[in-house]
Structures are given as structure tokens and as C-alpha cells.
């Protein structure tokens, strides 16, 4: 878009300049013609005044006056002749200026063309961009357009004076030619003016005379106008030149950027031969990452080499690793343990010095101090995050890759330093944990042990050498590194240092002995400064002089150490990689055979794949909620609502109103209080329980499907339980239900016979259900009947016998008063207790009341059933007489009102479930599934069994074996 805009701006500028130049040239030619007429007319008039023979003398007089205006004859020129001379001078100046401008433009244009061709030839060959950049055709079109613009502009623009200087000779030649032609034209006009005038017709003669009659002010005005046009043209040309210069600067800037891209791509082409090397170490690191969770004990197959950096705390092992990586990538501490977890660092060669964590896409630029600081903070954060449960160190591996120019390819594992004494802020098992971790990594038979020893302390105080001797007694894979030798030179005996580096002081054996300097103890020193200090030290140190001992130059500096470690690393990789690949191939064959024998018809699926399949089934079952019909939803909601509300209706509304003198008034008060307080919340609970019940029913129905896989049952149950636990009904639903329920309960009149019949049926069904519950309570209280005792060989307890006697006395009271109130009077309680005393049964009043409550309820419910039966056919009387009906049907009206509020509530809840709650439940289930998918521990707990573990192991071994084969192929290609 920017290039197209530039092209349009240049094209418009070229058109404008061409138009202005054409306009001023035409104007100048026109003025020149007019002035020639004026000049010729002046000569004819002068000759008429001097006589017929005055042609030669008159012409000579004009010539001398014109060529020498300051001579004596100049003061004898007639007025008309003076006006003509002024006009001629104006004409000459204007024409010279025009040709000067055009000549400068032409010469400058030619110079610009030449400079443009030179500049174009100096550009790099951009043919490679057609392959490297996708915009190759667009760039070629832009170049062609740019050349066309240059050709158009070079003919009309006056360019920089420095460029115009190059064509100065040509301009002077044109100026001299123009002056000669102008002098010839003036002389010809002087001698041939009469002939010209005679050849004109009368109109042209009048025009010439009128022109000569112009006043001096009008001539000056014409001259000023002409000069103003010339200045305007110069301003326009200058503006266009400035714009063109800006465009050239932009093009030069783009040219520089293209050169930089060219150099980068050229550098990448040069380093393309090293691509195999970079990819090799990355592939090998990926294999080690796969193995990290497969064979953690190095007991079966993970015997692949890696460099294990071990040493005492503060011995300088982290500094050695940073020197090899050429960057200070680890956090620093003053005497504090900073390395709290293993850090696997994969070193690789690359064009840029960057670092990246295995589980992150961000790259840290190691040439910037800000990125280095952020990298060190991230390492420290990950280390502290890996320590849980009050531990000081962790076994979790932090994997990172460091790439940069000149880095040696290898994989190093930095371990926590070995300590001899624990501080109070450490866990009690810290020392043992570090020892076990160090032995664990060194027990790999192909691990290269980089043993770090502090040269500034006594060798006898070292703890790491004993551990190294236990794991590698013959020293076939150990490299010994002595650090801080700059301090050792001042403190230790030189002969002792030489013995250490020659392998004669420690009983520990090693492949090689190296001495390094890891800095001057300054935290802010860069790696380059440390390396320069190290080189200067070894150049000037007397301790490592050849004449003083057997120390060889290749045994010193971190650079030689990294070369030696890398060489040994790749040598061991080549020696062991084929054997490791064969081991995994055999393991894979055994696992595949076992799978075919146990699960011949199933494909091996890991936990992630199984989890995704279970996730799909759960979400499909959630979708089926929307397929449930409205009728089924309302039936389920009706049942759930009555189960939730029936106890309150009987205990708090129906029974209290039945024992009051004003049944309807009490009912109205109780119903309104209920609708304003408890009813909306209870309705929401019923709706949520119905949604939960229907969802679980769908899950259970899915288990009966022939395609059901019971391996998902635990996972599905856990997801459903967690989703239901989190789900809450919308708060505004309660307020909406309250309004609907209050309006519904305000209606107190049954509208038609069908509703009356439904209310009667609802009353009978509800009373029968309550009566059945009461009968169960009575059976538990009084024991089984005579028939049951005989057939099932059961007997009554003492309490049941006692309650049976109390029941007999209570039945007498109810038979005497069929409409007895729900409570017993004091006299009645005394009568019952005395009657029982005659039978030697001692009971208190509370015992009698406890027995009375279910007995009276059964009596009341049976009476309610009789009233419902009587009211079944009483709708006509009710519709005519209302509440004054002879038959007491207030029970039916109450239950009709309850039935109506349940109906409208169920309808409202159904709409909420379909429109809102089912989708919200689906969203919550998805959130739970997403959380479970990231929790490997939970997936391992919920997806269990031999089928899962065997498939997981087989998939893991297959991945490792394939990566090993890919790595071996690349390794063979490098050879």
C-alpha cells in the first residue's frame, strides 16, 4: 500500500511540473512575439521622422543607442524608442531565464538519469527475493513503475545544484548560442523594420502603433507580472524537488532494510549445513524428556547419556554450567541454597543467543540484561513452586534449551549442591534427599559425571568425591573440574594443586582433569568479562607454567572443558544409542503381544484419548436434556414440587386450619405467608433436584447401551457430582416465582367441573399417601397385628404392649366425639392415665400425647377422605352457593389452590430449565472437564485398570522408540 501511494504522489508531481513549464513557455513565446511587433513599430516611426533616406542612419543610430545606452546619444532617443528598448531588455532577460531553467533542467535530468543508473547498478542482486519472499512479483512491478517515474520526472525537475554543476558547460554553451541569436534578431529588426511594416495590413499597423503608445507604468506592470510567473515556477519546481528528494530518502532507507534482510538470509544459507547438528541435539533432548516420566529409576531402558553436574554447595558448579552456556541463566544467592530442583539444560548451536523453557513458547534474548533478569526470576519461581509439603528440594525436572553461536551440543543436568550441615530453615530430610537424588542421576551407567571441586578449600573437606567413587569407581565416565584456582593460587600449595590436576591426590579416578576460573565473585560480571579474566589469569599464572609441572594447556579454561565434555558426550551417545533403540524395540514387541492377548478387539488408547472420548459422551448426554418433552418435564416437576411441599402443606396449613374456627381465613393467611417466604426457594430447590435427577437418569440409561464402556463410569460420576455441586439456580428466578405464586393463590374459586374433579382426586391421592405414612408410624409404634405375629413368629415388645393399651383408651375418646379437636384436655389425659392404672400400667401425660398424635392424624385423614368422597359430586351446589354450600368442601378448594400454584410453578421452572439452566449446567460441565483434563493425577485416579496402564505404557514406548530411530537416522546422516 505504501509503495502504491508513493507511485501516485510522484505521478501527480510530474504532471503538475510539466503543465507549469508548458504554461510559462507558451506565455514567454507570446510576450516575445508582442515585443517584436512593438520593436518593429518603433523603428518604422523613427524612420518616418528622419525622412526617406534615413533608413541606414536611423538603423545605425538605434544600434548604437541599444548597444551603448550610457553614451551621449542615449539622451537623444525619442520617448517611443526608449519604451522599445525597455521592452527588449525585458524580453532578453525573460528568454535567458527560460532557457537557463530549461537548460538546467535538461542537464540536471541527464545527470539525475546517470546517477539513478549508477545507484540502480549499486543495488544488490534481488533475484533471490523471488524465492525468499512471497512478494517477488509485486516488487518487480514496483521497480518497473519507479523507472517510468524517473524517466518522466528527469525532463522537468531542476535537481540539486550539486548535480547541476556537472552540466554547467553544456548550459553555458546553450546560453552563448541564445545570446547570439538574440543579437541577430535585434539587428535584423533594425534594418528590416520598414519592410515588415509595409507588409502588414491596416489592422496590424494600428495594433503596432497602439502597442508603442503604452506608458512606462504599463510596461513595468507587464514586467512585474512576467517576473512573478517566473518566481512562481521556480517555487513549484523547488517544492517538487523537495518531495522527490524525500522519496529518494525513503527508497534509500528501504534499500538498507533489504540489504539487512539479504545479509540475514545469506547468513542462514551459510549456516544451513549446521541445521542437522542443531536438530540432532533437540531430537535427543526430546527423547530424554519422554524418558523422564517412563523409567525414573534407570532400571530398565533409560541408559541414554547426559552430563550430570555434581558438587558440594557453593563449589561453583552452576558457574561452570553458565560458562559453558555463555550466559548467566541461574539465580544467585549469598550463601543460600539456590538450586532446589534438577535443571536440564540442552545446549545447541544457533544464530541467536536465546533460551526457552520446554513448556513455554517465549524466547529470552540472552544478549539483553532485562531478559536475563526475567529468565533468572522464572527459574527461581519454578524451583520454589516445585517444592511442596515443607520440602527443601524437589525431584521435578525443569527443562530449558539454550541456543547460541559457538555453543557445544550437549545435555547437562544441574543438581542441588551436596551439603554436610543443615540449617534450621531446611527440612529434616534435605541432606538425605540430595544424596539420593545425586546417586539416582549418577547411577545411570551412561551418565557423564562432571565432578566439581572447589579449589579454594581443603580437598579433604569434599563430600562429592566419595559419592562419585561409589557410582564410578573406575572413572570411565567422570570428568574432574577444579574451580576457583585463582583463589587456590594464593591459598593452597602449588604442588598440591598440581597433584590434584594430575590425578595423584584423590583416590578417585577420572577421564580428565580440568582447571577453570568462574569469576571474581562479582554478581554483575558478564560471561565475556569472566572469560577474559580467566584467560588473563592462565596466561600470567605461575602455577600453570609448563616448566613448573605437568599441567598441559588443554586442561585449563572453560572453553577447553566444554569441548572435552561435548566430545565425550557424543562419543558415548554413538556408542550406546543403537543398544538403547534395540532395547525399546524389544519392549515394544512384548507390550504389543500382551495387548493382543488381553484386548484383541480394542485399539490401544491412552488416558488422554479415553478422556476425550468420555468428554464427548458426557456432553452428548447433556444435549439430550433439551430433547425431553415439555409434558415430561412438567410431570417430573409436579411430582418433585409436591414431594418438596406436601409435608409443609399438611403440617403448617391444612391441619392448623382444620382445628381453627375459621378455616378459610386461616388458609388465606398461611398461604400468603408461605408464598412470600418459603415457597419460592423451595420451588427452586425442587427444580434443581428435578434437573439433576433427569440428568442422572440419562447417564444411567446410557450405561444400558450396548456400546457402553464401563471404563468411563468413575470419570462420568466424578464430573457429574462436581458440576452439580457447583451449579446454582439463578437468583432472579426466586423473585419471578414469588410474583407468579402470589397472583395464583389470590384465586379462591374453582372455575369448572374438570378442575373440581382434579382437585378432588389430588386431595384423595395426597390424603391416602399421608394416611399410608401414618399407618407405617402406627405399625412401628404398636407392633404387627395378630395375623402377622402368628405367621411370622413375632411378638410384641413391652413398649408396644403399653402403647396398645393407651391406644385402646384413646379410641374410646374418638368414638364418643367424632369431631374431636387435635389436642387432649387435661381431664381426658387424667381419665386415660387412671384407666391404665387399673390395669397396672403406669404412663405419664407426655407418653399419652405421643401416642395420641398419630392416632388422631389417622382419624382426621379418614374423615378427610369421607369429605372428599362427599364433595366429588357437589360441584353444582358449590358453584351455586360458594362458601355457603351445605356440604363442607373447603378441603377441596384448598387443594385446588395448591394444585394451581404447583402447576404454574412447574411451568415456570420448565421454561427456566430449557432456556437457561440446562445451558448453564452444560457450561459448568465443560469447565469441570477442562479442569480435569489438565490434572494428570485426577485422570490417573479416575481412569484406571490394566487396559489403561498397558495402553499408556505401549504408547509411551512406541513414541520413544520412534524418536530414537529418527535420531539415529539423523546421526548417521551427520557421519
TrEMBL record:
Domain Dynamin-type G intervals: 301-578
Recorded topology in the membrane: Single-pass membrane protein
Compartment list: Mitochondrion inner membrane; Mitochondrion intermembrane space
Record keywords: Apoptosis, Coiled coil, Disulfide bond, GTP-binding, Hydrolase, Lipid-binding, Membrane, Mitochondrion, Mitochondrion inner membrane, Nucleotide-binding, Transit peptide, Transmembrane, Transmembrane helix
Keyword rRNA processing: no
Region named Disordered: 38-63
Biological process, per Gene Ontology: apoptotic process; endocytosis; intracellular distribution of mitochondria; mitochondrial fission; mitochondrial fusion; peroxisome fission
GO cellular component: microtubule; mitochondrial inner membrane; mitochondrial intermembrane space
UniProt KW Protease keyword: no
Catalyzed chemical reaction(s): GTP + H2O = GDP + phosphate + H(+)
Main location (coarse class): mitochondrion
The protein's name: Dynamin-like GTPase OPA1, mitochondrial
Organism: Stomoxys calcitrans (Stable fly)
Amino acid at each position: 500500500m505504501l509503495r502504491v501511494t508513493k507511485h501516485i504522489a510522484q505521478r501527480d508531481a510530474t504532471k503538475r511540473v510539466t503543465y507549469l513549464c508548458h504554461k510559462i513557455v507558451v506565455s514567454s513565446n507570446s510576450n516575445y512575439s508582442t515585443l517584436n511587433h512593438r520593436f518593429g513599430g518603433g523603428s518604422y516611426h523613427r524612420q518616418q521622422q528622419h525622412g526617406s533616406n534615413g533608413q541606414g542612419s536611423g538603423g545605425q543610430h538605434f544600434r548604437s543607442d541599444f548597444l551603448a545606452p550610457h553614451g551621449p546619444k542615449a539622451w537623444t532617443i525619442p520617448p517611443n524608442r526608449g519604451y522599445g528598448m525597455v521592452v527588449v531588455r525585458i524580453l532578453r532577460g525573460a528568454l535567458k531565464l527560460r532557457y537557463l531553467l530549461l537548460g538546467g533542467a535538461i542537464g540536471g535530468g541527464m545527470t539525475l538519469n546517470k546517477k539513478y543508473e549508477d545507484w540502480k547498478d549499486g543495488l544488490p542482486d534481488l533475484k533471490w527475493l523471488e524465492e525468499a519472499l512471497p512478494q517477488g512479483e509485486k516488487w518487480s512491478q514496483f521497480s518497473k513503475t519507479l523507472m517510468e517515474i524517473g524517466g518522466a520526472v528527469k525532463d522537468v525537475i531542476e535537481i540539486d545544484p550539486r548535480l547541476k554543476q556537472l552540466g554547467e558547460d553544456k548550459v553555458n554553451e546553450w546560453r552563448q548560442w541564445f545570446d547570439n541569436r538574440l543579437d541577430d534578431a535585434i539587428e535584423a529588426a533594425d534594418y528590416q523594420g520598414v519592410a515588415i511594416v509595409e507588409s502588414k495590413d491596416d489592422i496590424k499597423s494600428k495594433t503596432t502603433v497602439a502597442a508603442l503608445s503604452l506608458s512606462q507604468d504599463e510596461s513595468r506592470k507587464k514586467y512585474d507580472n512576467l517576473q512573478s510567473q517566473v518566481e512562481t515556477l521556480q517555487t513549484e519546481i523547488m517544492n517538487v524537488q523537495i518531495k522527490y528528494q524525500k522519496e529518494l530518502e525513503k527508497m534509500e532507507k528501504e534499500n538498507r532494510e533489504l540489504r539487512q534482510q539479504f545479509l540475514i538470509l545469506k547468513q542462514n544459507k551459510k549456516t544451513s549445513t549446521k541445521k542437522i547438528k542443531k536438530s540432532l541435539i533437540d531430537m535427543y533432548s526430546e527423547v530424554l524428556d519422554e524418558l523422564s516420566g517412563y523409567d525414573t529409576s534407570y532400571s530398565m531402558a533409560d541408559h541414554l547419556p547426559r552430563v550430570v553436574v555434581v558438587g558440594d554447595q557453593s563449589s561453583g558448579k552452576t558457574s561452570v554450567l553458565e560458562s559453558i552456556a555463555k550466559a548467566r541463566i541461574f539465580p544467585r544467592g549469598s550463601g543460600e541454597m539456590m538450586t532446589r530442583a534438577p535443571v536440564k539444560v540442552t545446549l545447541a548451536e544457533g544464530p541467536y543467543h536465546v533460551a526457552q523453557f520446554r513448556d513455554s513458547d517465549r524466547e529470552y534474548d540472552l544478549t539483553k540484561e532485562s531478559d536475563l533478569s526475567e529468565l533468572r526470576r522464572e527459574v527461581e519461581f519454578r524451583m520454589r513452586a516445585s517444592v511442596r509439603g515443607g520440602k527443601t528440594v524437589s525431584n521435578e525436572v525443569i527443562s530449558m534449551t539454550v541456543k547460541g553461536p559457538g555453543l557445544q551440543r550437549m545435555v547437562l543436568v544441574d543438581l542441588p549442591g551436596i551439603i554436610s550441615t543443615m540449617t534450621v530453615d531446611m527440612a529434616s530430610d534435605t541432606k538425605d534427599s540430595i544424596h539420593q537424588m545425586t546417586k539416582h542421576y549418577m547411577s545411570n551407567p551412561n551418565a557423564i559425571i562432571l565432578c566439581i571441586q572447589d579449589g579454594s578449600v581443603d580437598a579433604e573437606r569434599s563430600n562429592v568425591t566419595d559419592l562419585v567413587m561409589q557410582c564410578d569407581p573406575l572413572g570411565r565416565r567422570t570428568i574432574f573440574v577444579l574451580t576457583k584456582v585463582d583463589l587456590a593460587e594464593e591459598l593452597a600449595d602449588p604442588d598440591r594443586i598440581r597433584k590434584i590436576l594430575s590425578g595423584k591426590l584423590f583416590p578417585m579416578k577420572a577421564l580428565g582433569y580440568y582447571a577453570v576460573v568462574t569469576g571474581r565473585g562479582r554478581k554483575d560480571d558478564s560471561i565475556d568479562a569472566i572469560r577474559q579474566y580467566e584467560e588473563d589469569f592462565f596466561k600470567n599464572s605461575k602455577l600453570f607454567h609448563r616448566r613448573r609441572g605437568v599441567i598441559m594447556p588443554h586442561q585449563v579454561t572453560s572453553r577447553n572443558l566444554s569441548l572435552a565434555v561435548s566430545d565425550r558426550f557424543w562419543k558415548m551417545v554413538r556408542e550406546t544409542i543403537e543398544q538403547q533403540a534395540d532395547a525399546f524395540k524389544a519392549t515394544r514387541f512384548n507390550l504389543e503381544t500382551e495387548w493382543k492377548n488381553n484386548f484383541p478387539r480394542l485399539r490401544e488408547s491412552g488416558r488422554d484419548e479415553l478422556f476425550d472420548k468420555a468428554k464427548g459422551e458426557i456432553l452428548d448426554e447433556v444435549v439430550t436434556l433439551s430433547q425431553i418433552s415439555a409434558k415430561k418435564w412438567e410431570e417430573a416437576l409436579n411430582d418433585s414440587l409436591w414431594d418438596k411441599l406436601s409435608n409443609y402443606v399438611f403440617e403448617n396449613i391444612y391441619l392448623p386450619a382444620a382445628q381453627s374456627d375459621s378455616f378459610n381465613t386461616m388458609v388465606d393467611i398461611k398461604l400468603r405467608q408461605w408464598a412470600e417466604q418459603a415457597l419460592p426457594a423451595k420451588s427452586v430447590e425442587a427444580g434443581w433436584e428435578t434437573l439433576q435427577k433427569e440428568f442422572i437418569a440419562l447417564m444411567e440409561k446410557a450405561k444400558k447401551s450396548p456400546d457402553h464402556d464401563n471404563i468411563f463410569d468413575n470419570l462420568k460420576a466424578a464430573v457429574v457430582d462436581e458440576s452439580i455441586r457447583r451449579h446454582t439456580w439463578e437468583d432472579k428466578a426466586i423473585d419471578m416465582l414469588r410474583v407468579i405464586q402470589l397472583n395464583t393463590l389470590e384465586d379462591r374459586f374453582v372455575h369448572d367441573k374438570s378442575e373440581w374433579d382434579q382437585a378432588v382426586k389430588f386431595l384423595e391421592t395426597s390424603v391416602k399417601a399421608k394416611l399410608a405414612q401414618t399407618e407405617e408410624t402406627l405399625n412401628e409404634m404398636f407392633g404387627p397385628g395378630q395375623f402377622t405375629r402368628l405367621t411370622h413368629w413375632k411378638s410384641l415388645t413391652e413398649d408396644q404392649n403399653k402403647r396398645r393399651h393407651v391406644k385402646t383408651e384413646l379410641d374410646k375418646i374418638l368414638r364418643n366425639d367424632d369431631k374431636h379437636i387435635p389436642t387432649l384436655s387435661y381431664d381426658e389425659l387424667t381419665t386415660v392415665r387412671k384407666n391404665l392404672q387399673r390395669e397396672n400400667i403406669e404412663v405419664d401425660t407426655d407418653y399419652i400425647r405421643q401416642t395420641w398424635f398419630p392416632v388422631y392424624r389417622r382419624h382426621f385423614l379418614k374423615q378427610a377422605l369421607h369429605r372428599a368422597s362427599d364433595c366429588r359430586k357437589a360441584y353444582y351446589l358449590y358453584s351455586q352457593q360458594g362458601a355457603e354450600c351445605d356440604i363442607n368442601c373447603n378441603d377441596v378448594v384448598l387443594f385446588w389452590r395448591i394444585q394451581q400454584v404447583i402447576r404454574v410453578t412447574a411451568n415456570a421452572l420448565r421454561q427456566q430449565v430449557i432456556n437457561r439452566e440446562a445451558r448453564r449446567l452444560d457450561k459448568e460441565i465443560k469447565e469441570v472437564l477442562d479442569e480435569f483434563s489438565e490434572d494428570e493425577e485426577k485422570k490417573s485416579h479416575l481412569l484406571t485398570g490394566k487396559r489403561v496402564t498397558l495402553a499408556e505404557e505401549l504408547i509411551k514406548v512406541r513414541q520413544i522408540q520412534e524418536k530414537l530411530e529418527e535420531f539415529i537416522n539423523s546421526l548417521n546422516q551427520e557421519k
